[in-house]
Amino acid sequence: MKILASLVKRNTKLFFKDKGMFFTSLITPAILLVLYATFLGNVYRDSFMMGMPEGVTIPEKLLDGFVGGQLFSSLLAVSCITVAFCSNFLMVQDKVTGARADLTMSPVKSSTLALGYYISSTIATLIVCFAATLVCFVYLAIVGWYLSVLDVALIIVDILLVVTFGTALSSIVNMFLSSQGQISAVGSIVSAGYGFICGAYMPISQFGNTLQKVLSFSPGTYATSLIRNHSLRGAFAEMEAIGLPTEAIDGVKMAIDCNVQFFGHDVSLWAMFAVLFISVAVLLAVYILLNVYRNKKKK
Amino acid sequence: MENIIEISHLSKSFKDVKAVQDLSFRVKKGELFAFLGVNGAGKSTTISIMCGQLTKDGGTVKINGVNQDEHADTTKRDLGVVFQNSVLDKALTVRDNLESRAALYGIFGEAFEKRLAQLCVLLDLSDLLNRTVGKLSGGQRRRVDIARALLHEPKILVLDEPTTGLDPQTRKLLWGVVSDLRKQENMTVFLTTHYMEEAAEADYVVVIDAGKIAAEGTPLDLKNEYTADFITLYGVDEEQVKSLGKPYEKVTDGYRISVTNTAEATSLIQKYPQLFVDYEIVKGKMDDVFLAVTGKKINGNGGEEA
Predict the structure, then answer these.
(1) DSSP state, B51?
(2) Is the ipTM of this complex over 0.85?
(3) B228-283 architecture in CATH?
(4) pLDDT tens across A274-292, in order?
């Protein structure tokens, strides 16, 4: 246990001290912020207004709170995955630098090493994502706060779950990498691509039918939807309270992926939680089995 | 002296490439053992197998009497390895690096501080502890590498081409430390190198070529067996040297005469005492041994010289 704790400490320290690795992990959230500042904010705002019946006036604070919540959910949905991938690249970096050979030269079990990477990557990702959450909460408090204590608690649960999912997924992918070039390639693909396929940059509802159906098999779709539902629940409740038509609100929910369908069936929030839980369990089982298989093969 | 490393019939192939073929050798406790070969000869493969980094196709490896196949964890505790390139975490401090590596051997808290203090004295590390490894000079980093290898007080120190790329002063410093370790702790040192002058200092040398042992013995045995002796004669003219009837070459201020062995040199001196007033007799060098054994000349990077 002490050996595992020491490995986790070493890995986590390395992630935050290795400026290259740390700043690379922040590229995707930074891109999202730039997109938001330049045009995405207006796109969110306009698409919301388009879904409202003519003549309806929305208080500016509510509109800002709604758009801010959408940004917040998109930002976290991508960060939980991309930061997990970047922090977990340490397991590949260790192979590239030779540190892995140094670690395995000792009598430490390879399962302890694998668990060390997983736990430290989870911790590092959680630190970055919770820091981002805090900043977003401050921003929402300034532009328009509609979150209840339960919403905040559920957002924290969402982050924990999505980070666990991201770390498990990255652990499996990164196991097969062994060079700096592969790190760059996978890093670029994940950074550039994940934001699109999880609906962070653009709602999945705006994609073509086939792509929507394909993406309904991706746990990332439900991860984004969960965070979005919890970060916008208060804003939607306020919309109802000021008398906006329920049909219009439902239309907006559908348009921004708060309501997700799986082959025509609505997916409830509990089902989304279940999808993520099962995905994490399956990915972790695969990660463990791959490690066991590799160890047996080595022997 | 008892054997501390016993390698028998070791073999390893990578697809069609036979990296190591039926390799068998022994390393005695406390000796400086040199493993010589050009790049790709099979040195690193052998070390990787010995250290449990690579699986073997056949043969046995015993470290300190323990079969590696049966108790890999025990054999790993007996080995401390200094890699050719530093493999410590460059972004962390020296202390963080040593602390995290010591933990892998179950060395924590006070036990770690005690060992760290000993290594600081041995390797003069005190001033470096809070510095980032990536910002250390080559020589300082090498000292930290050795400290890492010695953290768990191994019985065998494996040095994998430890002086490659180092300046002469750092090389000297490193060998000073290794020499102290051998004297003070009777440590066995397993060295791979392509610097022949380093191999010449070893107690026992194994020359490996294409995965097989090409020659082995003490440096003196190898020189006697594979190279000639040389007499360098000063203050004579070429006609006088020619009269000796031995192959020779002109060197600065004299002539270098090749003789089969020291006995022949003695007999020559006794036969022509008037010529041998100012002279010196030297054995062939390890470079000559290597060339004679493998037919290859080794260059400064460990590659084969064209």
Answers:
(1) T
(2) no
(3) 2-Layer Sandwich (3.30)
(4) 999 999 999 999 998 988 8
